[in-house]
Amino acid sequence: MSRLIGPAELDLLAAGARLLATGASESSSALVRDWAASVIGAGVELVAAGELDPGTWCAAVTLVGSTTALSEQLPRGDEPARAVRALEGRLGRRAGAVVALNLAAENALMPLVAAAALDVPVVDGDGTGRVFPLVEQSTYTLGGVSAVPLAIAGASGELAVLETAPDRVEELLRPVVLAMGGWGVAACYPMEAGELARVLVPGTVSRLLEAGEKGAPREVAAPFGVRTLCRGRILAVEGSSGHGGELAMPSLPSSIVVQELEGLRRLVRLEAHNEIVLALADGAVVARAPDQICMIACGDGLVVDVDKAEPGLEVEVMTVTAAPVWHTEAGLALGGLRAFGIRL
Amino acid sequence: MTVAELVEGGPLAGARMYGAGRDPVRQVRIVDELAVFGTVAPHTAVVLIGAAAAGGWAVEMAVRRAWEQAAACVIAPSGGLDEGSGEALAERLGVTLVFVDEDPLVTAVHVASAASRPEAARTQLVARCATRLAGDRPSVRRVLGVLNAELPGTSVAFLDPYGDHLAGRRATGRGRDGWTVEVDVADADGATLGKLVAGGSSRSPGWPAVVRTVLELALAPLAAWAATERLRAWQDFTVQEALAERLLTLPPEPAHHGPVSRQAAPHQVASRQVPPHEVARQEAAREEVAREVAAREVAAREVAAREEVAREEVAVREPGIREGVSHDPASHDPGSHDLASHEAASHGAASREAGLPRGAGLPGRRGGTSSPTPREEPSGAEEGAYEQVTDEVRAAAAALGWAVRGPLTAYLVRPAGGRPDAVRARALIAAALGPVPVVRRGEGWAGWSGVSPDELAVRLRRCVESTPWPCAAGAGAPVGGLGAAEESLLGAEAAAFVAGPGTVARADRMGPAELLGAIPADALRAPASVVLRPLLAVDRDGTLLRTLAAVLDEGGALKAAERLGVHRNTVTTRIERIRAAGFDLEDAATRLALQLACRVLLP
Prior knowledge:
heterodimer, A: about 350 residues, alpha+beta, 9-stranded mixed sheet, B: about 600 residues, alpha/beta, Udp-n-acetylmuramoylalanyl-d-glutamate--2,6- Diaminopimelate Ligase, Chain: A, domain 1, Beta-Lactamase, 5 domains, 5-stranded mixed sheet, 14 strands, about 55% helix, S-Me-THD_N_sf (chain A)
């Protein structure tokens, strides 16, 4: 049962994708939305993975690098198509559909741009059910699909195809992204539709379309449930340690102390490493990765990035439950606390 | 051992503690991962190392787990957690959190040794207190400082025998579980100096006993301190007394001021020509000069003690000097001042030959004390040396903040019961009256002040109200200068005699009624009856006694007859009968005695 994502649906998807996403900047979100709007024409077909012929060859499309860099170095417009084409050339197969790696803000729209350029449908679902900082942190990986070969296209016409051991993707990718100016569009996780149906978190695009409707509750965007940990005021933002020095994460660990404003008035500590991975209330664990923990500003209802948190800000701390596969042993190893260097 | 004891006086000394630290520490557990907490027993000091101390989040989780396990405290290496947040959580959960700078493993060993043998740790504490208390120059401040610093979670105060706070930390509110320890402090002769009172809220058993032991260690230094202080105070007052007596016997300064009297010149300018609003400013300058001169001259003396006293006195009593002169309107009255100067000059001239040697000899008479005896020179013989001595005495007095010229008013404070402690009485008088000499005079203490009689009376009232035993005080009439001080002193003495306990009488406000009111009628009643017995024997109805009183009071038979409402001849007849009883009314002494006796016997 396919449906069309036209200009109206695009706006809904863009709005829904920002509800629980961190790291989204206003200008880059608008940019990618306009980019997608300019290329989708009447619309892009949205299909469930099961509706495709199981032998259809698919690729995941995602933005890598910094969204700030994206809004400073504008895209040429052909990056998603070039990346997918490069992967096609490498593997000698033609892509029959594209799928999102995750659906956080800009990343929800990037497959639309690719699909419009390649004239293929977009698969309803994604590879995380939430967002993780690393390319290999996906349900695809958990399902045994390799992220490589991976093709990445940059705004100045650069193109690179990476073939590595699966656990070295991030290591090679990061310097390439830097060299490209801070961002690129990657095509990765090449697989057939039958396999994709097995490993993806299904239906998430439809959900965001629903959640993007005006007045829709935020919970709709969270397929596996969301709960509010507390409402509070940020008391302090501190540097943190003890996350394991060997860990190669894009940003430094920090710690946000929130004083609950009501109820027990607990002292909530949010331990962040690229994203909030652990929440303590009066020293007791109340939430942890792989569930997603985010702060929503009480003022404007937008997600507060870890690096934008400042004392005095009133926030609502929410936990978005991750897909069940993340709570398996393999899932915890890939996206749980240990993956962020915290040994509990 | 409680956590507070460990931190404030034990192996954790110097560590930063957040929380009350009241829990006793029975054992120590080194924790390197949070899973270990499941087996932590209550009253355990948990020392975090490795992953368990890896970051703020780890320490917070440890604090939480410690709370769940009822551990005594969490000891973490500093730097892991922002201490502000740690404090907030420790306070919230009521768990004591201690940050140490040294290797946590070393800390753990020390804490374990202290916890397993609390007696050893306490013995160490007592030994350290003993060493510190035995340090040089005991003073009440030092002793109390040591006690309060060394006894964790304990306030120690020193109270005088009247219960007033003298030094140390006042015991804070004593809670339900609070305790106090009191130890009496006696001087070398066994008389009570006061008591040491310690209090706290530590629930550690045996701690009050340790506190008592340490307080008892402080008794000897306190007794030594008291003895030193008394000696010093006694010497101070001896010195001051000698100085005061010398001042009283000095010849007055010349009416016209030459270069000789160095400190006098600015003062004269201030009091004669400068309008009052200028005076305060000049006063400051004058004090500066006076202090300098005094310090230089005093330093030249060979007795170091004197120097110390003078400087201290100046430092303490400066405000008094300013007040004494600038607030006194009389000091701006050139007429009275001149008169006083002349008077004093003539008085001084008369006493110059005889008076000065006597004055110079005064301190010597008190021989045996270490009071600074002015150089023994035949000062009367050489004018220069004589002037020098005069200057020195005045400078010393100025350094003490005493009024040495200008209008002044004498006072006398007289004990009216109890057994006053002379040193304390003098200290109280000096404290209440400001910079004044305090000299023993009869049963009481006397001196003079430069402040106005009104102000002096106010201060005297404050003084008699502050003495722990009943006292009465008198102020003399204001006089022009030191030369007439004796006159004012006599007035003050009389006034003090008239004043009742706790009150102040003023000679300049005192009339015959006040004097008569002061007659101790009870004491005189028996002697009066004896004196008048011959008369009373013949005076059946009291007529003769009333007539005698009327005649003596009215000064003659005529007026007495009017007062009594009888004929003059009746009065004359009665006088004859009185004479017949053996009373010679022509004799002035007899007349006075009889009048006094009548006043005592008649209602």
